[in-house]
Amino acid sequence: MPESPVIHVSDISAKIKEVEQAFRRYLDEFGINEPVNIINNSGGKDSGATDLLAMAITGGAYRSVAADTGNEHPMTIEHLKTLHEQRPDKGPVVEIVSADYPEEMFAKRREAISKGWRKKQMVRAGSYRGILMPSLSRADTKFAENWRSAAKAMGWGDYDTPLDAALSALHRTGNPFLDMALTHGGFPLGRQRFCTDELKMKVVLDRVLTPLIEAGCDVVQWSGVRGDESDKRAGYTRFEEDRRDDSGQLYNFLPIHQWTAADVFALYRHFGVKPNPLYSQGMGRVGCMPCILVKKEELAEIAARFPSEIERAAEWELQVAKTSRWIHWMIVGHVNRRQFKPVQRQIRITPHLDEDSGEEVNTATDSRPARLGINTRLPHRDYELEVEAYQGTSMLGPRGGVIGGSVHDAVDWSKTGRGGKVYDLVTASINAESCSSKYGLCE
Ligand code: SF4
């Protein structure tokens, strides 16, 4: 086993000093006097280290703010609530804020789908472009009859129409993550990662930063971003004006931009503070559990150690699926979708080399109307998509080739080896009792 890098206390003292000098220098350079220092604290090791640095440098003249997404492990919330008890000089209690999705927002959404779902709707993008989706408010159609069977088989209960199911699910729960997904009619996914914006950035901006700016304060926001985590992060500037705000009063400071994970844990040891206990329970990162971007190995760890978090995600999926027009259409499967004729023809474009000129040409080789059904393959650029009936909506998106599955499908995939086919003995033998921290935390 490789040895953890040894970092001496004197090295950490020098690093703290460097951050302090850099901070003072930036204040001078930007002409900032007595700013309000706000620490973005996620409960993770890097933002926690940033909090400890702020404590050392400002003597406690700062606010540490955490946005609870409602999808955090209870240990993270407990760690945040008790961090001030661990700091040698105590300092401020971490302020925990949460996004709120008021009942009026749900009422608006219910009104919108009550009108919108009555009409047929054409799919305007992707492989299904041109397909007409049916009205979801009628109970007297063949589609509705088949939808009722599918909905029952999925454990959704007895509803006459998809609209009835959606209206029953669209109510405020008070959990920010779930309320966000319900009002969007789906979970955040890939580029549409609205969770970070709505549950973290916006709530801190609205509740904490904007009131300070409006009160005329200069605000320096400290974040625990480290450059060695990705090329994108490496390109961030250590101190700059925040462009989200044109008042010229908001600044971003990345005190540990050049630090390694080993430096961060050495800082914890230096102050005698324990990081979030999730790091000693197999988690390589701390944030939502599960995060929509969770890595394969980490998902296997979560399933082995914290199965109740997976069950919670599965319950959320059932509720959120009912609010998605797309899912209602897709659960019915091939039997009934064939009645919805595509209004455009699917054309397969095949690039090939012209025998005479030797140049690449594109030829339309197939202009039959697309037919949807089990195992139907739709030509779409350079890949083909298998069309099947959805079984739900996975909070973690398609994993292991399963589209329209559930978090349980994702967990099954997480227990497989490379390529998702072969059962991986290493992954399967996770011992939920042992420590497998990636950072050598068990001394
Ligand atoms: S990206 Fe992950 S950690 Fe961040 S808010 Fe979304 S689910 Fe939570």
Distance between the amino and carboxyl termini: 14 Å
Oligomer: single chain
Order of neighbouring strands in the sheet with most strands:
3-2-1-6-8-7
In CATH, the homologous superfamily of the domain at 9-99 and 192-283 goes by the name HUPs
What's the tally of helices? 16
Q: Based on DSSP secondary structure assignment, what is the total number of beta strands? A: 12
Strand content of the residues, in percent? 5-15%
CATH class of the domain at 9-99 and 192-283: Alpha Beta
The largest sheet is:
6 strands, mixed
Note the overall shape.
Answer: elongated
Q: Find the structural class using helix and strand composition.
A: alpha/beta
Write down the secondary-structure element order: HEHEHEHEEHHHHEHEEHHHHHEEEEHH
Radius of gyration: 26 Å
CATH topology title of the domain at 9-99 and 192-283: Rossmann fold
Q: Overall pLDDT, averaged? A: 82
Describe this structure in words.
By secondary structure, the chain is an alpha/beta fold. It has a domain at 9-99 and 192-283: Rossmann fold. Helix content is 40%, strand content 11%. The protein has 16 helices and 12 strands. The chain has helices at 9-30, 45-58, 74-86, 103-116, 142-153, 162-169, 176-184, 194-214, 231-234, 261-271, 296-305, 307-321, 325-331, 334-337, 407-414, 425-428, and strands at 36-40, 63-67, 95-97, 121-122, 132-133, 219-222, 239-241, 250-253, 348-353, 360-366, 377-380, 383-386. It has a 6-stranded mixed β-sheet, sandwiched between helices. Strands 4-5 form a two-stranded antiparallel ribbon. Helix 2 links the parallel strand 1 (36-40) and strand 2 (63-67). Helix 11 (296-305) packs across helix 15 (407-414). Residues 69, 71, 188, 193, 195-196, 199-200, 287-288, 291-293 line the site of iron/sulfur cluster.
